[in-house]
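Lab manual, section 2.4: Encoding a predicted structure.

Procedure: take the sequence of the chain (345 residues), apply the prediction step described in section 2.3, and record the output as C-alpha cells. A sample record is shown.
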Amino acid sequence: MLVLGIESSCDETGLALYDSERGLLAHALHSQIALHAEYGGVVPELASRDHIRRVVPLLRQVVATAGVAPADIDAIAYTQGPGLAGALLVGCAFAEALAFALNKLTLPLHHLEGHLLSPLLSADPPEFPFVALLVSGGHSQLMRITGVGEYETLGETLDDAAGEAFDKSAKLLGLPYPGGAALSTLAELGTSGVFELPRPLLHSGNLNFSFSGLKTAVLNLVRQRDNPDDQFKADVARAFQDAIVDVLVRKSLKALKETGLKRLVVAGGVGANKQLRQRLNSEIQQRGWRVHYPELEFCTDNGAMIALAGTLRLQAGKSVATANGAFSVKPRWPLAELFNAKNST
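Recorded output:
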C-alpha cells in the first residue's frame, strides 16, 4: 500500500510517500521561515499563497525520488486540521482534486495525530502502549496511547502551550523570528540560577500545564532592566528554559508513574530542544524506562508523519471518514474528537 501524505497546516509545505512494506520512500519539505521573518510571525494569507506555489513541485520531487508514478499511489492522506484555514484549504483542495483525477481514496487526518505517531518513523520505534508528551507551538499535552486511534488525554495546557511561551518570551527579549529556536540557542550562553522563574502547576496534583504566568515573569524581569545587555538576556533565556524543561520532565515522569507504563514518546517542535532531551534521557535512564523521539527532521511539521498516520489507520481498519471530494477543513479540531478517542479530563 502506497500512501501520499500532504501537510499544509501552517508555514511548512510537506509531502511524502510511505509504503506499508518498505517504509518511508521519499519526503520533501519547504519552510516559509524566510518569508515570514520580516513580519516577526506567520502571515496567514502569505502562507496560503506559498503553499499553492510549492505543492506541485514537491509532489514531482517525492514521486521522482521514490521512483513511482502518481497512478501507483493507493491513498492520499492530508491534514484536515487544526491549523490556519487558508493553508489547510490548499492541502485539502490539492489532495481531493488529485484523488479525483486518479480515482484514489482520500484520508483527512488530524495534525496532532501525525505528531503523536511520528516517533514510529525513527530507527528505534516505540511499541504500544506508551505515554506521549506532545509539545509544540500550539499544543502541550500528555496522552496515553494504546494503539492507532486509541488516545486518552491525561493532561493539557490551560493557557499558553510550551512552544507559544517560547515564542512570546523570545519577543520580549527582542529575539528574531522564529523566536523559540533563537531563545533556545541564547539559553546555552546563559547561567542557571541567576534568575529563578516560577514552575506553574508543578505541584497541582494533576497533569495539566500552564505557561502564561511564566511568560509574564519574563516580562517583569525585562521591565526591571532599562538597558538589558546580552548576558542579561542569555541568563533570562536560560532561566525560562530551565523552568519549562523542569515542568515538562516532572509532569512526564508523573504520567508514567500514574499509568504504570515505562515508555515515553516525545513529539512536536519543542521535542527537538536539546536541554529537554538531555534531562529526559537522564531521568528516564535512572528509572530503567525508555524514551523515544522522532528524528530531528520530523519534529516540526512534515508530510512523512501524515503519510505514516494515514497508512497506520488504513492497516488498523480505523480510517476516518473520507471527504468524498468535499473541500472541508477543521481549523479548530480537538484531538479527543477522533474516533475511539477518550478524554479523562
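Check your result against the sample. The CA atoms of residues 190 and 231 lie 7 Å apart.
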